[in-house]
Amino acid sequence: KRPRLPPGPWRLPVVGNLHQVGANPHLTLRALAERHGPLMFLQLGSIPTVVISSAHVAQEAFRAHDLAFAGRPALYSVERISYGLRDVSFAPYGEYWRQARKVFMVELLSAKRVRSFRSVREREVASLVASIRRLAPSSSSSPIDLSRMVVSVTNAVTCRAAFGDRYEAAGGGRLHRVLEEMQSVLGGFCAGDIFPWLRWIHALDGLRARVERVFGELDDIYSQVIEEHLRGDCTSEHGDLVQVLLRLREDPTQRNTFGSMDQIKGLLTDIFTAGTETSAATIIWTMTELLRNPRVMARAQKEVRDAAGKKGAVEETDLHDLPFLKWVINESLRLHPPAPLLLPRETTEACTVGGYEIPAGTRVFVNAKVIGTDPANWSNPQEFRPERFSSGGDVRWGECFEFVPFGVGRRSCPGINFALAVVELVLANLLHCFDWEARLGKGEELDVEEAFGMVVHRKRPLCLVAKPYEYGKAIF
Ligand code: HEM
């Protein structure tokens, strides 16, 4: 007997289940899964879709059929900005993806390479602390927009790792603006991704023009940076990604894969889309939860201040002594995974999960947020309680299906080391150098309202009063 599709809600003609998903899919999909189960079938416009909402189903799907789930859909905005999917994140599963991911892993994201960017991180974090001091010289200063400042730091760290010292020459400010606009065109569902035959509509609704504008500006910046590297004007002490990619062009074994400039540019875009907003959102959600939980804030600050002592700043070598801070970050990633539905997958072949058929070409969402707050695996799941990570040692990312903020299987995030290095250093310094206060009305609590996008941020920026801490005077 032919297996059936997984259960799911009734669908309307043409739109299918689209009207039930709405503008906040990570929330509506939770409610739908509660009714229809942890393996659910939806028809989103013309796209057959499966949503996985439990650790148990994720484990069964990815242990037995990792390859079948290793594809990605070709999304409208991503296709153009990644130079025709010449990236890692959205490249179709195959040889190009494998080679490109290997280059990322070895040349940019390995533990050794991440360590080599230490001075980049320390410099950018020092500059963040100095900016906050300038804006908030005393405890009676006005609140500062921490969300904005944190995105600038994560952008700057990624830009320096990718471009080396040419980052400022590339016009740091202009690049930030373009990257912001890029995140906005990539955010959310667009009609052309749900009804591929409707892609023409983006000529009318303005999306095509926005994508073209961002693409043009990015291309301009990349061309300038690559040109300077080719002229030999680049002297970064740690070696940067552009240098590495240009060297690969000279290598006869790699030339076929990385021969064209478009390939280099596609990979650069990937680093910015995958790496900056995700890390910034993690920092901001962690600060949000610390402010909502003064007991946890006090313990985290004590740990950091004990480790750094009278030093004006926390250095990377101090981070080894901060186990509590690491649990705090894990707890934040559990409650607020920046990519709550991971990145969409598309099945490369048909497979059977839990006795149900998943046809080839099905779009797949894994609901990391629901999995991380499933009462079957987490006690009092909505409570922010970092101590729950105290037993069992470090999390083994990718092997623990109850906690998947970085995804699962062969397409899981390769940037974990790179991300956590900057997230930990920024947070440690924010906690060491300042005391923080959210100026709220009587009885009011700091909110956790979300704005949906490929990366889920706070709906409103995190604006806080920063009170300089006594030992924080001599920064670095
Ligand atoms: C806290 C920060 C981060 C979070 C929460 C995060 C999360 C994720 C998630 C959920 C995925 C999709 C995984 C899947 O489909 O199973 C992903 C993929 C990816 N991430 Fe990250 N990420 C972060 C930081 C970074 C950084 C800093 C980089 C690089 C500089 C990076 C590079 C990538 C790439 C290239 C992919 C695509 C992998 C592939 O398709 O083979 N990420 N990330």
TrEMBL record:
Keywords: Heme, Iron, Metal-binding, Monooxygenase, Oxidoreductase, Signal. Its cofactor is heme. GO terms for molecular function: heme binding; iron ion binding; monooxygenase activity; oxidoreductase activity, acting on paired donors, with incorporation or reduction of molecular oxygen. CDD domains: CYP71-like. It comes from the Eukaryota. InterPro entries: Cyt_P450, Cyt_P450_CS, Cyt_P450_E_grp-I, Cyt_P450_sf. Heme binds at C413. Belongs to the cytochrome P450 family. This is Cytochrome P450. The lineage of its organism: Eukaryota, Viridiplantae, Streptophyta, Embryophyta, Tracheophyta.
